Please model this.
Amino acid sequence: MSVAHTVLASTNTGLAHFTQAPEPKKIHWLIEKGLHFKNHPLAQSHLGQGKTLALIFFNPSLRTRLSSHKAAMHLGLTVMSLNANEGWQLEFEEEVIMNSDRAEHVKEAAQVISQYADIIGIRSFPTLTNQEKDYADQVLNKFTQYASVPIISLESAIRHPLQSLADLMTINTFKTTPNPKIVLTWAPHPKALPQAVANSFAEWVLASGAELTIANPSGYDLAPEFRQGAIQCHDQAQAFADADFVYAKNWSSFEYYGQNLPVEQDWQITPEKMAWTNDAYFMHCLPVRRNVVVADAVLDSSKSLVIEQANHRTFAMQAVLHEILQHV
Amino acid sequence: MSVAHTVLASTNTGLAHFTQAPEPKKIHWLIEKGLHFKNHPLAQSHLGQGKTLALIFFNPSLRTRLSSHKAAMHLGLTVMSLNANEGWQLEFEEEVIMNSDRAEHVKEAAQVISQYADIIGIRSFPTLTNQEKDYADQVLNKFTQYASVPIISLESAIRHPLQSLADLMTINTFKTTPNPKIVLTWAPHPKALPQAVANSFAEWVLASGAELTIANPSGYDLAPEFRQGAIQCHDQAQAFADADFVYAKNWSSFEYYGQNLPVEQDWQITPEKMAWTNDAYFMHCLPVRRNVVVADAVLDSSKSLVIEQANHRTFAMQAVLHEILQHV
Amino acid sequence: MSVAHTVLASTNTGLAHFTQAPEPKKIHWLIEKGLHFKNHPLAQSHLGQGKTLALIFFNPSLRTRLSSHKAAMHLGLTVMSLNANEGWQLEFEEEVIMNSDRAEHVKEAAQVISQYADIIGIRSFPTLTNQEKDYADQVLNKFTQYASVPIISLESAIRHPLQSLADLMTINTFKTTPNPKIVLTWAPHPKALPQAVANSFAEWVLASGAELTIANPSGYDLAPEFRQGAIQCHDQAQAFADADFVYAKNWSSFEYYGQNLPVEQDWQITPEKMAWTNDAYFMHCLPVRRNVVVADAVLDSSKSLVIEQANHRTFAMQAVLHEILQHV
Model:
């Protein structure tokens, strides 16, 4: 885990939030804080008054946009959202002659937004065509480098830490044994998707000190730095045996980068497969393709936690905002 | 009127707001409440504090967006707006295999947004190509079915109840006799438009206990369930005689669904035609095509109420939000 | 300067804010007020409570959008932003038959938005193809004519007064002599850009009572009414001699309207050229093309004021909003 950075929030002004993988103690403390705010959302409603949170979306967002806004409101923050893909092309390379269609350098953009926002959230998806560039996580890292205020990842090219914190809050709420069996399983999808959710889920579960089993077809192994420490297998039946939590997610191939490789067996999550488990809870970050990723009967069952995961997004963000606001 | 539902706001959590046509008493009470807030906009400015209103726009909006935001602010609510047509394709059919371009099912979307919003407003226009689908009012009804918080129609495929409430507030303010003659008249327009405003205006005026005359060219009769109870005629001169309020609006054909049929006579509202009336007030929901729907001289006259109608949109929304907030 | 109107904010309801070029006293008073708010941003945080600011963007905006939002928040105002280019075509001509694609007349739009907003900000760029139309500043002026609340220019076809006020705040903060030499210099750019920033900067510097030297290639002289009173030259070296502030900006030709004329010499701002000055500060309104408009070494030097200019945008807006709120 030494290479693994869970860039949940960071800053270059002396504060250092979570730029390294949070330690188990820190993770459990964030989970506790999130669950505390779930019960007492307005307990700190004056902390952020007179302060602003800028949410910069280079890619579409529903859950993150709304949950971040609600979390910020709970803390008294003013939210300013910007859809950055509309007529605003940023240059990220250094020492270039900017005579293309990119009108502003991230160096100025990050510093300028830092004049208006006390905290900046950034969402930016990967290209899925250039592995090296994506795994350098350029957009998030350049903003972190040049901003003078804390940056929060609203899902970057390779990580989605707020989702993972919400997921751990959910597992923590529903687990009935101290060490439940947690399975992350690949599932089918018609489009090539980022690895970010899977990467972060693996990283956070493992960093929390829990065991994790990852099941995926051959060719779909996650990047080594994210799966290191997990029990890996290419057999869904084997992975599901005795599982307490089944977390389904599609991702495109890391090895054959960004590709949707053909898969021989059907990896869709069905009631038949859930019967292999220890009456496991079903989890997914949403949005989800019904009857492609997961069968209606699983998603609509009482063991599905997807809506509760979405609810926890608010309080995961609130925990992180609160953590930052205490230091700015 | 038994089939006619004025889906102004509804919920599946036990509260039932206006899912049936409001009774006359309820309508008059909403009008009174709206006019009260017009005079005392900040009288309840703490009621919504710590609560959120999500406005989901599947179609563009100016008046509804701004008036809803202002109304919410008056009640202390935090507003979160989402333009849903940008990269967010929803599936509305049940039991489908979601392998097309629709990435999320309304079942999840409605439940998820309900985690972040205490009240949800939905705007969704009709296709104007599929009468059965449009009149099933799928988008609004599916959100109402699956959300766990109250839903407000910000104009659906077939109704625009907040506009109608604002219109009744306007008539109530300017009428000089207990039972003024109210005329809803079709007017020309270069594009095929929804029937929603006309449907709702007819429904609300009739449900309020008032008489309504509807004038439109042959082929442009509204759907039976909306015009039932109104005096209908295909002659503008006859309709305008002794009118106290002339409400002009274009709509496309219901019978020849969604079509802009050729019309022999000119149905534009002119000073000459207004002279047939009892010095009637002119009303329109806006936006309006000058010198197509209505002549400059009518729109710019002192008898034009269009700006006052727009103003009342704020307080119609505030009355409905207040009604809901008292119960959530 | 008699023709020059610095339409910073205006109204047709009896208040008259800055519809003529502000007098030197007024400019200095606005600068003082802006710098006061920089030190005490929340000193008047209740003044705007219960009131709304509508920001209408006919063109993209980053700095203006965020700085306006922050300034409004400091004063307790609720902000409603509208991207007006999305499905909302306005008609600006009088007495036309509106059967084209323009669905609403500015006459209604301005009056309607005035029902929802206590103050309206408008951003609208020039066509750069029709000089007469652009210099009539139609969008801003029509909104000012028809609105019943104060209008603030967020950059119009020909002026960007909030930028200029922020720029003067910056010069005022960093000047070390009472009468520093201020140079406005044209710089290269791959695209044809508006003259608005240059026009307003010249207008405000001159109206403040300061001297201004304008350097640009032949063919790039600003409109006569804006450059009148300035020292003009077509030689960058001559202009930079003894300069204390170098304000760089590209603009397209006024004479050969909207064109990007070929320029023989390189007008990029380099360290070599800055060495000709009196150790001048470098200024630019951003966004800026690195190594096209200005060399990295200049922009990244300690004499670059661009981020401070961006910061002052907030307090320039706050000064203007405060001025208006005291009168509405």
